[in-house]
Amino acid sequence: MRSLGLFLLAPLMAGVTLWSFLVKDAAGFQNPAFARIFFWHFPCPILATVLLFLGAYFSFRALKGPDEERWDVRALAANELAMVFILLTLATGVLFSKLQWGAYWQRDPRQTSFLLVSLVYVSYFVLRGALSDPVRRIRQSAAYALAALGPAMFLTFVFPRLPQIAQMSFHPSTSIMSGQIKGAYAQVLLAVMILVAIVAAWCYRLRVMAGLLELELETRNAELDSRRDPSDPPMVRPVRLPDPSGS
Amino acid sequence: MGSLRAAVRKEWRQEVRSLSGLAVTASFAFIGGVLGGVALYGIEPDPQLLAGLIWLILLFAGAVTLPRTFLVEDETGTADLLRLVAPAGVAFSGKAILASAQMLVVALLGAGPVLLQSETRIENPPLLIVAIALGAVGVGVTATLCGALASGAANRAAVAAAIALPLLVFLASLGTTAVLPAFGDPRPVGWPACAGMLGWVAGAFTLGPPLLTAVWRR
User: Fold this and answer.
1) Contact (CB, 8 A) for A187 and A1
2) What is the ipTM of this complex?
3) Nearest chain B CA: its distance from A92 CA (Å)
4) What is the pLDDT of residues B122-167, one digit of tens each?
5) Is the Cβ–Cβ distance between B135 and B175 less than 8 Å?
6) Distance of CA A235 to the CA centre of its chain
7) Between chains, do B166 and A122 touch, taking CB under 8 Å as contact?
8) A66: cis peptide before it, omega within 30°?
9) Is A132 helix (H, G, I), strand (E, B) or coil?
10) What is the DSSP letter of A179?
């Protein structure tokens, strides 16, 4: 059943991409013909935010214990995937900004605040990379992920909507809620959102499976090492040497 | 309360035993302030530029010098002893209080030269004082938390600064907004931004101890 679902994902994605090019241009954009990147830009920050919340929850479970390594694998997978979607948001946003507003970087408050969110989570990976002790790495990075969630969510949801900030922003806050995106455009947007969410969930599952397998391998290697008698000579594998005569 | 007082006293004694840490912090802040003033030489800065420059100096001075409150325990080999004898919450609060007090001095040494050299008229001194004080305490407690999280890392001082700065940018943006009316900006954004910084300080002092307790649990 799962294989069938994954088999169908590629043609569905291709179909929705084609549909996104065929749908009539939406009014409300400065350059409607070049606004279709919006379909791919819009789901990315939403999925990134959901993944950051998941990452924080798994970090909390890792800190609380037990089984902190397995929760850490889940937290790392969520934060890695969130970082991918944050970078996609920035990349698609930069292209949209150039085509619609005339410059790659408008110093738009939403662009700037999301860039700051990306820097906050880059620091998470910097911290993980600097801690060689696995217990410290799990606990200290989990604590950072929890501490960083508040500022990240303020920068994502509150800061761009502050009155003095919102009036400077090029990003409309209400185009979806006030029905400016409607009809076929809204249907394509919904379809892209659902498909990208499915791809994200699939990538997350694969990443967690890989992480848990790595953990299992390390555990088994450690068990093998502990079973060996220290007085045993190290194992030597025979190697076939080339015949000097050339035969 | 008694254990908190003992923790603060221990941190103070550790700092004054070797004054190099305090000296580095003070000189960093003062040099930053003087350089900031030099950068404004000959121009009349608008409130936004002046506020941003002050917070830039305070941010870097704090992020680079304050995380050592925990990192010095790694360097002197007393980190494990601290974990054994002190509850995590008390250790964190003691270090955060001292770091905040240091940061208040840093704020004076960093912002003072910039304000004096720019000859800016201060329209609302109480707002300026409250905003910088709250921001300084916020930087102190955040840098302390980041120092605790970077403990045991390779190149820990740089890592602590690297993880503190993105969090502090958010606080600095609140601080910049808070001091704008003090420099003549007509918008009534000062006291709401101060309320935001107070929320940050309260949140950091509340979240820090349980986080560190969870990190230190055996």
Assistant:
1) no
2) 0.86
3) 23
4) 888 999 999 999 999 999 999 999 989 998 888 888 898 899 988 8
5) yes
6) 43
7) yes
8) yes
9) coil
10) T
